[in-house]
């Protein structure tokens, strides 16, 4: 008992008639009980998280842009770093929409990780250097990192748990686009591709 009152939970299943649900809600109110529609409550909660995450993604994008602009101080290199991020995010989002019909909260949160990886690939592959050996070493390191990350998230995309499957799929697709775009837009792209 809590405050001299007993509390209990009576789960219902198989109720699909809206009129019956409304009558049940009215009956519960008359007897001082609360009727909770967990499906509707969860949908409202996720909808709120979805819009809040979208707002925060826009703020994160502005902060990333400002931080990179201040750190790089080179508009040409800034474009070579930012463009792969935009390409990776837009392409990944498009693939998610085409294959899944809509993006959910887990897809959106995963796009933050895609953006972070795209920044890394863009920064490393656009780094100014004249040493052929250093460019080859950078390409090898970034390729190993991208390949292992891709493999890990691709395996995660095979999960039976929908949230893990959404995260794995989104990040694996994002890694593919981020790596490819960063490589193609690298400062010495002919050297990297040889």
Question: Quick gist of this model?
Answer:
This protein has 194 residues and is an all-alpha fold.
What does this 3D model show about the protein?
The protein is an all-alpha fold and 194 residues long. The protein is built from seven helices and no strands.
Helix/strand-derived class? Answer: mainly alpha
Cα shape: elongated
**Low-pLDDT regions:** none
Please report the distance between the alpha carbons of the first and last residues: 74 Å
If you compute it from the alpha carbons, what radius of gyration comes out, rounded to the nearest whole angstrom?
Answer: 24 Å
Write the topology of this structure.
Layout: H1 18-30, H2 38-72, H3 75-100, H4 105-125, H5 132-156, H6 162-184, H7 189-193
Helix pairs in contact: 2-3, 2-4, 3-4, 3-6, 4-5, 4-6, 5-6
Keywords:
194 residues, mainly alpha, 7 helices
């Amino acid at each position: 008992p809590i405050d001299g009152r007993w509390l209990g939970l009576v789960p219902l299943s198989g109720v699909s008639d809206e009129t019956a649900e409304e009558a049940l809600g009215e009956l519960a109110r008359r007897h001082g009980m609360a009727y909770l529609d967990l499906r509707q409550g969860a949908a409202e909660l996720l909808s709120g998280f979805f819009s809040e995450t979208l707002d925060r993604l826009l703020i994160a994008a502005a902060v990333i842009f400002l931080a990179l602009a201040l750190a790089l101080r080179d508009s040409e290199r800034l474009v070579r770093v930012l463009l792969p991020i935009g390409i990776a995010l837009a392409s990944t989002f498009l693939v998610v929409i085409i294959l899944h019909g809509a993006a959910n909260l887990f897809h959106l949160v995963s796009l933050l990780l895609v953006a972070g990886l795209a920044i890394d690939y863009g920064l490393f592959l656009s780094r100014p250097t004249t040493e052929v050996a250093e460019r080859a070493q950078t390409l090898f390191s970034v390729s190993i990192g991208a390949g292992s990350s891709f493999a890990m998230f691709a395996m995660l995309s095979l999960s039976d748990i929908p949230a893990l499957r959404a995260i794995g799929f989104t990040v694996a697709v994002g890694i593919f686009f981020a790596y490819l775009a960063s490589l193609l837009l690298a400062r010495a792209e002919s050297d990297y591709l040889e």
